[in-house]
Amino acid sequence: MTAAFDANGAAGGPEAAAAGAVDVARDFDIAIVGAGPVGAACALLLARVWPDPARILVMDARPAGAAAGDPRALAVSEGSMQLLARVIDTRELVAAPIRMVHVSQRGHFGRTVLAADEMGVAALGQVVRYRELIAPLEAALAASGVNVARPVAGAPVADGDGWRIELPDGPARAALLVHAEGGVFERSPAADEAAPAAHAAANGAPDAPRAEAGRATTSAARVRDYGQTAVICEVEPALPRRGWAFERFTRGGPLALLPVDDGERMALVWCAAPDEAARIAALDDARFLAELGNTFGSRLGRFRAAGPRHAYALGQLRRDTGNEREVAIGNAAQVLHPVAGQGFNLGLRDAAALVAALAEGFGAAPPADAPATAAVVASSGDPIASPGLAAAAAPAFDPAAALARYRAARQRDRDFVLGATDTLARLFTLPLPGMSHAAGAAIAALDLLPALRQPVARALMFGLR
């Protein structure tokens, strides 16, 4: 049982757990900074394998429930749905399946379709509203035995062989710090007022700047500004195609449409140069819908309604942590362009692999009917924390070796996704002679050659190992 407390440190009963809970113990094995989808899932996966979940702390700068009005949609791959099913009942999510992904290039030949039935799955993924995903994750955290503290505004400070953390009711320590939120692309303030909330629609980043409860302190960041801004809203087509998602490449940047709710509406991510994006976002509904139809084409008929528009600067940011007592996952480790909707999925795979490495390093033992490792390799190839790991006699917790294994294990998948999204974000916008024709030929080759298309679809669903 955990003791709930409010922002002033006042204790309450279990019913206050949604507001934040901290165990009376002040010494934690692991502190996770960020209670967004990746951080929450990481904590819940850890709670299934850790000898004492009360020695896990999750902290966030925002109060619980802050995402209740968040309108964003996440593209959740089939592999990510399998991981989420380990910690929440995904059958209760309000989700729209993606069974087909249509990829094309405006004004040039070449198109391909990725199909779920070709891959032997019911859906390539699901589109889930951010608020619909975070609510069950927060509820599961409250019942997990993991300690949750929020809001916590101060950054953890390195202190000897661990970290000192100032919680609302006093100081605490943790042996390992996991940064799971806070990675957003920021253009220079003069470039775009919306820049601090970059790329939120597809990658699960916060939709407004906020104070962070810590950020990787030993990381070196590599940054690329794409010179693009995403205009995001929901639209209603006259001829909806349930189960279909669309990725259309233009000279200004990619345009994506994802089904939401019952498929009658679609989440739009329209990328363009910053000045052009500002112009598009400022159009009245009639002109906005007309320009969208002209850019996207007639596959869904006329667009007849649009929701409020939001604009976010786009770039890529990659951090590498070098401290043996901290690690960054998800948006704290990398910020992606929203093309192909890979940010959240890459972050969730980060979380699963980290849990597997830590459980193995701590000496957690699998149940009798599971493989003799701390991770189960599913048919998809994903590392998934076993649901029944029991604690074995283990030495004192020393995360250094586990973090080294984790970083090595994630290198290939991370490099692939960062490289692929970077290429897709820029390839179709390059003003080089013949580039559009070459890109169209590449799309056509995917359509003609299942031996190329299927590995691409599998990598998007499950990542690389």
UniProtKB/TrEMBL annotation:
According to the record, the signal peptide region is: none
Carries keyword Oxidoreductase? yes
Q: Which GO terms describe its biological process?
A: ubiquinone biosynthetic process
What Gene3D superfamilies does the database record attribute to this sequence? D-Amino Acid Oxidase, subunit A, domain 2 (3.30.9.10), FAD/NAD(P)-binding domain (3.50.50.60)
Pathway membership, UniProt: Cofactor biosynthesis; ubiquinone biosynthesis
**Which residue ranges have biased composition labelled Low complexity?**
191-208
**PROSITE patterns xrefs:** UBIH
Cofactor field: FAD
One Gene Ontology MF term? 2-octaprenyl-6-methoxyphenol hydroxylase activity
Region annotation Disordered: where it falls in the sequence: 188-220
The record's InterPro entries line, in alphabetical order, gives: FAD-bd (IPR002938), FAD/NAD-bd_sf (IPR036188), Ubi_Hdrlase_CS (IPR018168), UbiH/COQ6 (IPR010971), UbiH/COQ6_monooxygenase (IPR051205)
Supply the name of the protein: FAD-dependent monooxygenase
Q: Which organism is it from?
A: Derxia gummosa DSM 723
